[in-house]
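**Folding the chain**
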Amino acid sequence: MEKWDLIDRNRTKLEKQIMRGDPMEPDEFHLVVHVCIFNSKGDMLIQQRQPFKYGWPNLWDITCGGSAVAGDTSQQAASRELFEELGISYDFKTIRPHITINFDRGFDDYYLIEQDIDLTKLVLQSEEVKAAKWASKEEILTLIQLGEFVPYYEGLLSFLFEGRHHYGSIRL
């Protein structure tokens, strides 16, 4: 069972923690992180969720993601999730999320990094990850249309691919 720090709408840590699944007050939120790794060809490393995993079983998903646990900063949560799910070590200490998206109960921080990863060296977390592979934006959009990928907004995925080299929403 995960314990989460609760934060307010300004991302200020509250002096309160809950266990995953416990109810939150309307003015309480939590942090979720996502990491998208792109290779030098511009493909994204994607993972297939286990068939017994709660939430989107057996579907393909972006590289990794999960909730920050109590005591985690966004960067620590991103590093932990990436290592737990795929066995990849990456130092997030000096970077910040490329984008943050608000959702009903919290904040989604997205980190976009470029690194050529040898798929044969991945260590898949058996409780969560069934498989991993590289996929182009077009392949991912096709998987979404086929109902085989977590149903992210297509515009978000396009933004992740296009915005991976810089921060902000303006082309430089």
Observations:
- The mean pLDDT is 96.
- Residues 74-86 form the longest helix (13 residues).
